[in-house]
Amino acid sequence: MAFAAGHSGSSSLLGTHLQASNTKQVLAPRCSRKAARVQAVQTPASTAGMDESMGFKMMRKGVKQASADTVLTPRFYTTDFDQMEEMFNLEKNPTLPMDEFEAMLSEFSTDYNQTHFVRNETFKKAAEGVQGEPRKIFVEFLERSCTAEFSGFLLYKELGRRLKKTNPVVADIFSLMSRDEARHAGFLNKAMSDFNLALDLGFLTKNRQYTFFKPQFIFYATYLSEKIGYWRYISIYRHLQRNPDYQIYPLFEYFENWCQDENRHGDFFSALLKSQPQYLNDWKAKLWSRFFCLSVYVTMYLNDHQRTSFYESLGMNTTQFNRHVIIETNKTTARIFPEVPDCETPEFWKHMEALISLNKKLIAIGASDAPQWQKNLQRAPIFAGFAKNLLALFNGKTVDCGSYDLQPEAALAV
Ligand SMILES: [Fe+2]
Ligand SMILES: [Fe+2]
Predict the structure, then answer these.
(1) Residue 355 resides in a domain
(2) How many A from CA of 262 to the centre of ligand 1?
(3) At CB < 8 A and 24+ separation, what contacts does 301-304 make?
(4) CA of 234 to the centre of ligand 2 (A)
(5) Could you tell me if residue 384 is inside a domain?
(6) Which ligand is nearest to the CA of 184?
(7) 68 alpha carbon to ligand 2 midpoint, in Å?
(8) Cα 180 to middle of ligand 2, angstroms
(9) 67 backbone dihedrals φ, ψ, rounded to 5°
(10) Which ligand is nearest to the CA of 228?
(11) How far apart are the CA of 232 and the centre of ligand 1, in A?
């Protein structure tokens, strides 16, 4: 298989689970349009317990029960693989830019990070030094990141398998990207085991909810998540290079090369989008582009502002960090999407801040002891506030941009 635990030197736990799980069997029956949701993760009662120091639910010793799915948690995706096969069928689509795909395949095959993800003895000791509230938030950060990386692994792995016959070059690129994501997820899961709270990724594969997105939406969402991932990792890395006193755990030292994987993945989706001009060249494409940009930016802004103490523990200002990441991701995205929101207006941030304050109220209601009917009553005006601000963001100023004729993306500078 493309994934090899030995490459990363870090992924024995992930390797074990991946071998135990069979993504073909897991994904194939769930690929119909209506099969987007499966049952929630159930913890076997006989093995369940609590991590007393941090209050996490445990599946068994050293293995954390995955957090419950919410609107803001990372998702696992599935798509219409038949449509993907059609789209990249070389006989039916002779004009596909195969030269560009072959050049990309050669770059992915070079495997720049083959020896990058090797742990050292400082990890475990550094984890022991993270205590109290930051420890809990740290584990949550690792879990969210690991789940997001693993989600990429599952989707790319399946695409690599399904496109093998119709377009071996594109299929191989997906398989090599799944190799990268498996390394990333494995590295993060190993980091979680430093905190005695690893995830059972095989169990998660079989039991987590899968969200169905048709290929067009997979392209927008995945392009954005790769590029925003790039900007998050590189921004944290650069910050910690400038402020080494906040380097509390060695994971972040790996982010510089790591984020280049994400950047390459994003560039591949950029090439895929350009090969499908119908997703870039009309008013519907513009609306969907705007919608997906806003969904990704709002989700990150709300998520990170729920965990400001994590970023503060790294010496970062959450708002500044998030704004920088959103603005840079938006500039990058403007090179390919036909339209993006204008993130550099005071109005845009006014609505984003309003969402933060509404979210805080929502969390406070959830945590209160009020009866359910009263909570529902209190939530109604908050949901109305969410709708109002989201609508205002959607109808806000936009930037007309992108072109599928644009030059390949230049190297990104920070
Ligand atoms: Fe990744
Ligand atoms: Fe990636």
Answers:
(1) no
(2) 6
(3) 301/326, 301/352, 301/355, 301/356, 302/72, 302/355, 302/356, 302/359, 303/72, 303/144
(4) 13
(5) no
(6) 1
(7) 23
(8) 7
(9) -65, 150
(10) 2
(11) 12
Task: Give the residue numbers spanning the domain of 212.
Answer: 5-293+320-338
Centre of ligand 2 to C-alpha 151, Å, is 10
**Residue 55: inside a domain, yes or no?**
yes
Measured in angstroms, how far is the CA atom of residue 362 from the centroid of ligand 1?
31
For the chain, the domain total comes to: 1
In angstroms, what is the C-alpha Rg of the chain? 21
CA 200 to centroid of ligand 1, rounded, Å: 18
User: Would you write out the chain's pLDDT as a tens digit for each of its 414 residues?
Assistant: 222 222 222 222 222 223 223 333 333 333 333 333 333 333 343 345 776 666 777 777 777 777 766 666 678 999 999 999 999 999 999 999 999 999 999 999 999 999 999 999 999 999 999 888 888 888 999 999 999 999 999 999 999 999 999 999 999 999 999 999 999 999 999 999 999 988 888 888 888 889 999 999 999 999 999 999 999 999 999 999 999 999 989 999 999 999 999 999 999 999 999 999 999 999 999 999 999 999 999 999 999 999 898 999 999 999 999 999 999 999 999 999 999 999 999 999 999 999 999 999 999 999 999 999 999 999 999 999 999 999 999 999 999 998 654 444 444 444
Could you tell me where the DSSP H helices lie in 243-371? 255-274, 283-305, 308-313, 318-333, 346-367
Q: What share of the chain is helix, strand, coil (3-state, %, to 5)?
A: 65, 5, 30
Please check whether residue 363 lies inside any domain of the structure. no
